[in-house]
Design brief:
Layout lengths: L1 E5 L7 H12 L6 E5 L1 H10 L5 H9 L8 H7 L5 H12 L4 H6 L4 E7 L4 E6 L8 H7 L9 E3 L2 E5 L8 H6 L4 E5 L14 H7 L4 H26 L3 E4 L14 H26 L4
Parallel strand pairs: 1-2, 1-7, 2-3, 7-8
Antiparallel strand pairs: 3-4, 3-6, 5-6
Helix pairs in contact: 1-2, 1-11, 3-11
Length: 283
């Protein structure tokens, strides 16, 4: 089975949206999708077949204080406003196609981090309606700038804390060939968390989570090495930025958002023929 594995990266992840739109336009199909943080958000639009939706609303609202900003953080504890981003936007301003998503035969997983255990949780979403949207929100809730998301009496944070590139997990689930979309250029290596002292103060009641944060860079770099090994073994096909994306994790410049999205489109178009050969060696 063929899987689609989507790394996060905040607004830098709009690169992934560009890649996914090209895949949709060229009718590239997969047997399952797993997304982390921003990858989970853009992956949901892939499953619902909504080409252009991710970049449309990100470009339009990235500088809108109702979408994200200091005022939301001070009032709610969330830099990205929960009510606006996960209720108003998908239900009214730029409607998410819940019905197409629910009818899709493509299994869709999001990765979240269990704060108490400091371990990844892989949740299969059959729908994103109502409280089910909280799984998507949890996957994209970055520490320090978000509150943990409570689901069924458990607290969750960004899945990237514990499993940023869940290729091994998807292989475990039976997806033996994986398209992997990364949001950093080749040669990137993650460094230790700079704000660890703030983390230790804020999350002192969750020692396992803090331990996961301390090891995050090591785990990420090991996963990156593994997926590159799988690419060399022709078990994975990596699409990643051919140059450093202009959009940062908390980008508010719509021009940089658009340019990063277009970079994703260009790289996907460039990779298209090789990708088709990966998916179908007789192509």
């Amino acid at each position: 089975m063929t899987g689609l594995v989507l790394e996060g990266g905040g607004h830098r992840g709009i690169y992934t949206a560009g890649v996914l739109d090209v895949l949709l336009e060229n009718k590239i199909t997969v047997d399952g999708v797993i997304g982390v943080s921003a990858g989970a958000i853009h992956g949901s639009n892939f499953v619902s077949h909504q080409v252009g939706r991710s970049v449309r609303y990100t470009e339009k609202y990235c500088s809108n204080p109702s979408y994200m900003g200091l005022s939301s953080f001070l009032k709610t504890g969330d830099l990205f406003n929960t009510e606006f981003c996960y209720r108003t936007l998908p239900e009214f301003l730029d409607p998410f196609d819940y019905n197409t998503f629910a009818r899709s035969k493509i299994p869709y997983y999001v990765v979240v981090t269990d704060i108490k255990k400091g371990e990844p949780v892989y949740h299969k979403c059959k729908t994103l309606k109502d409280e089910n949207m909280d799984w998507l929100r949890a996957s994209a809730s970055m520490p320090l700038v978000s509150k943990p998301v409570e689901i069924k009496n458990k607290l969750y944070f960004d899945g990237g804390v514990t499993d940023s590139i869940p290729v091994a997990k998807f292989e475990e689930l039976g997806f033996n060939k994986n398209i992997v979309v990364l949001t950093q250029p080749k040669g990137y290596s993650k460094k230790p968390v700079k704000l660890m002292k703030f983390m230790e103060k804020k999350y002192k009641d969750y020692p396992e989570f803090l331990e996961a944060m301390k090891r995050r860079h090591e785990v990420y770099n090991q996963e990156l090495e593994y997926v590159e090994q799988q690419e060399n073994a022709e078990n994975a096909f990596i699409i990643r930025p051919s140059s450093k994306p202009l959009a940062g994790r908390l980008e508010r410049d719509s021009v940089k958002i658009r340019l990063t999205y277009e970079l994703g489109r260009r790289d996907a178009i460039q990779a298209l023929n090789n990708l088709k050969c990966f998916l179908n060696p007789s192509y």
